[in-house]
Write a structure and sequence with these properties.
Jelly Rolls; two-stranded antiparallel ribbon; alpha+beta; globular; 8-stranded antiparallel β-sheet; 13 helices; Arc Repressor Mutant, subunit A
């Protein structure tokens, strides 16, 4: 199953499949950003994938929508959009995992443009046959696991407890090192723990309709298209014929932060990039990210990065040129 999924993905524009002796990689390079997914097949029917996405969108082949592997997703950093079987949306965030048998969407959405996550693919028919003795020795029944978590709904989503988070963190660590012994060890520990532990109540959170998600994304596009402008939320809400409270709720549901916090960080991240990549005057950068008062800009910048804009520029210059202060 996974071979078909990867080969279908390789046909997409901007996506390339590369094979190596120990892993397979999907590499993404398109106008929205770039990323990579590294796949380690641990046993026939069981594959671990590390997801590094520096993009808002990762395309998925329509041909993969016919496949329904049991899939565990764990978010280490960022946010991932999940389209549920009832056509509502929910967002996987840091320290949460979801278990699903849904078919793939036509694209993966990462609302914040940066995501790190771990995926475990199970082809239950293949895996339970190829590892029958091992599963019996560890007293692991994957069909029981599937019934436990997704018998009533096609997607289960929950915050990890300390034990699960510890195991998943180690699984990520040793996946990066391609340590198959440790990956096997911690994977079986995770499966066993999920079977014997009392399942958590599926996370209660906002579920959003397609229209609500589209409003949040259009608002995001308008707000970030020109950082020099400070558009009142009231004006934006009127444009979409919704209340200010509704717009704020939709935005936070999709992007994980309220509008003011998100925009402040966006402005400072943009300023940091301009300070690092250009020699434009700080006064000009301040205006470009929406601060007519340079002193206010410097204060907010230092609060986020711990350095004044000028100090930050000097530090980045030294780092990029591999120079010590004594050589300047």
């Amino acid at each position: 199953m996974l071979n078909n999924i990867l080969e279908n993905s390789d046909k997409l524009p901007g996506v390339t499949l590369k094979n190596s002796p120990n892993s397979r990689k999907l590499l993404l390079n398109h106008s929205e950003g770039n990323g990579k997914m590294i796949f380690h097949t641990i046993f026939p029917g069981l594959t671990i994938a590390l997801v590094y996405a520096d993009t808002f969108i990762w395309p998925e082949s329509e041909s993969n929508q016919k496949f329904h592997p049991l899939l565990l997703n764990y978010c280490l950093f960022g946010r991932c959009e999940l389209l549920l079987d009832d056509n509502t949306y929910v967002y996987l965030q840091e320290k949460e995992y979801c278990i699903s048998c849904q078919s793939a969407q036509n694209k993966y959405i990462f609302p914040t443009g940066k995501y790190r996550g771990l995926k475990v693919y199970f082809d239950l028919d293949t895996f339970t046959v190829s590892c029958k003795e091992i599963l019996e020795a560890f007293d692991i029944d994957l069909w029981k696991l599937q019934r436990k978590y997704i018998e009533k709904k096609n997607t289960y989503i929950c915050e990890t407890d300390d034990t699960e988070r510890n195991i998943l963190t180690k699984l990520w660590k040793f996946s990066e090192k391609s340590s198959y012994f440790h990956m096997k060890l911690y994977l079986f520990e995770l499966l066993y723990y999920m079977l014997i532990s009392q399942s958590h109540t599926s996370k209660r959170r906002g579920f959003y309709t397609k229209t609500q998600v589209e409003i949040a994304k259009k608002a995001h596009q308008i707000l970030t298209s020109d950082l020099r402008k400070h558009l009142p939320i009231r004006v934006l809400a009127n444009e979409f014929s919704v209340s200010e409270t509704s717009l704020k709720n939709y935005f936070k549901g999709v992007y994980g932060q309220n509008i003011s916090s998100y925009m402040r960080k966006k402005r400072m991240d943009t300023a940091a990039e301009m300070l690092s990549e250009t020699r434009r005057p700080i006064s000009e950068i301040s205006i470009q990210v929406g601060y007519s008062n340079q002193g206010k800009f410097a204060s907010v910048f230092k609060k986020q990065f711990g350095f004044s804009p000028l100090e930050y520029r000097r530090i980045r210059y030294l780092e990029k040129n591999d120079m010590s202060p004594e050589k300047i």
